[in-house]
Specification:
The longest helix has 41 residues, at 83-123. The strands form 3 sheets. This protein has an 8-stranded mixed β-sheet, with helices on both faces. The protein has a two-stranded antiparallel ribbon with strand order 1-2. The protein has 22 helices and 12 strands. It is α/β, with parallel strands linked by helices. It has helices at residues 6-17, 19-38, 42-45, 73-77, 83-123, 139-163, 169-201, 218-223, 228-231, 244-264, 280-288, 290-301, 306-313, 322-328, 364-371, 434-443, 463-477, 496-510, 547-558, 600-603, 620-632, 657-675, and strands at 50-52, 58-60, 336-342, 347-350, 381-384, 397-403, 413-420, 448-452, 484-494, 518-522, 608-612, 637-639.
């Protein structure tokens, strides 16, 4: 990621400063040359000396033309069929567009001039927050990269507008882009001002600052900044070009479906997915007006509505697209792709012999003893109880078993991949992640087990952690049934699933279970708090994880509203008061909710860790902060920054070559860990 936004900003300032005088001279030339042509029909075209911008805003367009001549409508109508009248109309429209372009360029130049000193000051702090030497990745770099990418995009639009012919439709679209770019740069200037406040408040170099150090309304005030430009005509400028169409469609879907949900939900007129059915008029508006989409999207996400977010992001569960995506990606069908319900029996496993050993390490002797029919001593056995449902009764857990072939006892794989899906803790299952899991199964000679943990807000923390821990223990206990020896165990997860990757690994050490050999987390949520950071401020312009959705997901999982759920009596370390952040509880218990808060003694038990943060992701600083802590503890940690990709990129690997390469990187990382065994 670029450490400084200076070159693009400086170029943009030079590009947009030129029209300040040149376009004025051009408009004066238009005035004198078209005076005689426009005079007969001036009341029609320049009656009020105003023109509408592409966004509908009324601006002065020709103050230097003088007052309109007093001609009657009948006089002007005499020219309606005259070719000169048509030429005049076309010329006037083009001239008005050029004046709008000039005004936008003046605004762009002013914004670029304001951004330059602020960007230069912040760029000096970038290296301070990198995870470790040699890797340039953190939320501050991301914000400056946003400014740099935006400057390049706007400069391109300005240059392309000047090269287009008068009657070009694309020229009008470029004018919309230039106008939106002027507003976008102004919004980015506001964003950088909030980033500077965070950097100034950060005295310890941690990048993520405790929200108690800020005014109570800091994040609320940031959310109220002008953000429509981020989702309007210039939407997606920072992302890979192949991702922009699908992201635009997702934003438009949330805008239209959110309006339908808000209109129907209070009256209860429809239930289920039908409540999201958008109105035809809204679909037309979404297709024709990016600014309307931006306005509605911000209204929808600004409600912090858990129910709508859960319903919307559960839509892929009901779409039969998996087979088509698999075929389009050229993937073979998994021979085994089945759901298994496990529990509610207690799972007992021999404790590992040596702390810190992997699943195929120090516990080999205990496993062989168990398999030979020997009875381990009770002190050498750890028991993992099943999770409890809302009524306090033992509950079951569903897992998805995927493999490219059926394996006999003589064909067992040496490894197993245990996967925890994303979905903001509130939505989706293993079904919605089948496409990239099938890609992994095609490349890896190992079974994949994906856990369908319980979802918030119905099942709050720590139910999902209990589900994942129980599934982990069950897989190790029943490894032969799944076609694996489990000598090498890989935990992998994305987004919310990345949180469970760390939580399960920490709990495995707590219970002296066989430890995993590798942790792979893509864009994980490792801090379930609303603590500000430069990276988290990107939620103010993110299409998949906007601030309102992030707020709703974190609060739903923590259980800040309602009553705390009953906890498993046999898992006392999971007891936590979810109503108060600074409650009088054991410090270690917070580690399973927010692994980033785990003490050093707990983090030192983790195996090799690979993190895959996105450059333009609100959770980028979660990965960076975790990598910094692990590096300080001399743990083996590798950060793989994903440039130009958005949160949830694994689900888009069929539409983006860059996302596909990221999925291939996941395969390479897991394959390397498997081959070590």
């Amino acid at each position: 990621m670029a450490a400084s936004a200076r070159p693009p900003l400086a170029m943009l300032y030079r590009t947009c400063s030129m029209p300040r005088t040149s376009l004025l001279r051009q408009s004066q030339r238009w005035s004198s040359s078209l005076q005689s042509v426009l005079a007969p029909c001036r009341p029609l075209h320049l009656r009020n000396h105003t023109c509408r911008s592409s966004s509908g805003e009324i601006r002065s367009c020709a103050p230097h033309l003088g007052a309109p001549t007093s001609r009657s409508h009948s006089t002007s109508s005499a020219f309606d069929s005259n070719p000169l009248s048509k030429l005049a109309a076309l010329s006037a429209h083009s001239w008005q567009e050029d004046v709008i372009f000039h005004n936008a360029c003046v605004d762009i130049a002013d914004s670029a001039q304001s951004l330059l000193p602020l960007a230069r000051e912040l760029a000096l702090q970038c290296a301070r927050y990198d995870p470790y030497p040699g890797v340039e990745c953190n939320g501050l770099r991301s914000c400056l990269s946003l400014v740099s990418t935006c400057a390049e995009h706007v400069a391109t639009c300005v240059q392309e507008y000047g090269m287009r012919s008068i009657v070009s439709r694309k020229k009008r679209r470029m004018l919309q882009q230039v106008e939106a770019g002027s507003r976008l740069l102004h919004s980015l200037y506001q964003l950088l001002r909030y980033v500077k406040i965070i950097v100034d408040m950060d005295r310890d170099g941690q990048l993520i600052v405790d929200q108690s150090k800020f005014p109570r309304d800091f994040l609320s005030e940031a959310e109220r900044m002008e953000r429509r430009a981020f989702y309007g005509a210039c939407f997606g400028f920072q992302y890979d070009q192949e991702l922009r169409p699908i992201l635009s469609m997702i934003v438009a879907a949330q805008a239209t479906m959110g309006r339908a949900y808000a209109a129907r939900q209070p009256q209860g007129r429809r239930t289920g997915l039908n409540i999201l059915m958008p109105k035809p008029g809204d679909l037309v508006q979404a297709a024709s007006s990016p600014e309307w989409v931006a306005e509605q999207f911000l209204k929808v996400t600004g409600r912090h509505d858990q129910a709508f977010s859960k319903l919307f992001w559960s839509l892929p569960e009901h779409l039969t697209y998996y087979g088509a995506e698999r075929v389009a990606a050229g993937l073979k069908k998994c021979e085994i792709n089945s759901l298994i319900t496990i529990g509610p029996d207690v799972v007992s496993l021999p404790k590992k012999a040596v702390a810190g050993c992997g699943a195929g390490g120090g516990d080999t002797q205990a496993r062989s003893q168990e398999e030979s029919g020997g009875i381990p001593h009770p002190q050498d056995v750890t028991s993992i109880p099943p999770p409890l449902d809302l009524d306090g009764k033992p509950a079951t857990v569903t897992i998805r078993h995927m493999d490219m072939k059926k394996r006999t006892s003589s064909q067992l794989s040496p490894a197993v991949i245990i996967h925890f899906h994303g979905g903001g803790f509130i939505a989706q299952t293993s079904k919605t992640h089948q496409t990239y899991l099938t890609h992994w199964a095609n490349k890896l000679d190992a079974p994949i087990v994906s856990v369908d943990y319980s979802l918030a807000p119905e099942d709050r923390y720590p139910r999902a952690v209990n589900d994942c821990l129980y599934a982990y223990a069950w897989v190790l206990k029943n490894r032969v049934q799944l076609g694996t020896e489990a000598r090498r165990v890989v935990l992998v997860g994305d987004s919310a699933g990345g949180n469970f990757v760390f939580s399960v690994a920490l709990l495995a050490a707590q219970y002296k279970l066989p430890a995993p050999d590798l942790l792979l987390a893509a864009y994980p949520a490792l801090l379930i708090e609303l603590d500000p950071s430069p990276g988290r401020l990107q939620s103010l312009l993110d299409p998949l994880l906007p601030y309102g959705v992030l707020y709703a997901c974190l609060h739903a999982y923590r259980g800040d509203e309602g009553h705390p759920q009953r906890l498993s009596k046999d898992v006392p370390v999971l007891t936590v008061d979810t109503h108060r952040r600074h409650s009088d509880i054991l410090k270690s218990s917070r580690a399973y909710l927010s692994p980033l808060l785990a003490p050093d003694t707990m983090l030192s038990t983790l195996p090799e860790v690979h993190l895959m943060p996105c450059s333009f992701d609100p959770l980028v600083d979660d990965s960076v902060a975790m990598a910094r802590r692990l590096h300080t503890l001399n743990k083996k940690v590798t950060v793989h920054p994903m440039e130009g990709l958005c949160h949830g990129f694994l689900n888009f690997f069929t539409v983006s070559q860059r996302a596909r390469r990221a999925s291939e990187l996941c395969v390479d990382i897991m394959k390397t860990a498997i081959d070590k065994g």
